[in-house]
């Protein structure tokens, strides 16, 4: 008659063999594993790393922090805050902050102001000089004043030597003292509080910027862009814009619309020098 100890051992061995036969992820080439993992939120990666010993490396080796606040929807706001804080703290303690190269974080509209602290915690722990992708989306159910929005640290621009993609929503950019983003190629801003001077400085000092998209940036009034590298520009629903000046000799794509789609310059003063832009 089989003892309980032997029965448990037999079940453990059978479970191990089952995992071996079902574990197709470990048999894939490393670049395919990285591609699959890159499409998962950090919480799923953390969960997978605890399932099987061979997958333990996933969390430590993957250089990204991806999560959306909607993943932490529980019965009460306090539970949300506690669980989110626990996740961020544990994730950052297991992950080597210096290895993180991508940050993609999204918030829900109704609790975004409570979320600022958690985002600030992440930004303080990572090495900003190694960040290549920064995607922060503070989703809005109404347009907030600048003082209630999360302020992007100036160090993102002064220390962003590896930054290539910057996507922001529902936050603010204050005066930038120094800009060191030689690899920045793509910038997208939606409902971002940014002044004319700050935008001009950011674009002018991003020597390899190729694509710029702005939506609902209501503080822009005197729109001035000067860039020798910019190729694509989209401006949508920046309703307070009064003047529009471009000095972009390599620009080949320009899209500009207000609350209703209209031809560029219908309600605005336009002045541009774009060497590659077709003249209709």
TrEMBL record:
Transmembrane residue ranges = none
Specify the protein name.
Answer: F-box domain-containing protein
Q: Which SUPFAM superfamilies would you find in this protein's record?
A: F-box domain, RNI-like
Residue stretches making up the F-box domain:
22-70
Q: What domain of life does the UniProt record list for this protein's source?
A: Eukaryota
Which source organism? Opuntia streptacantha
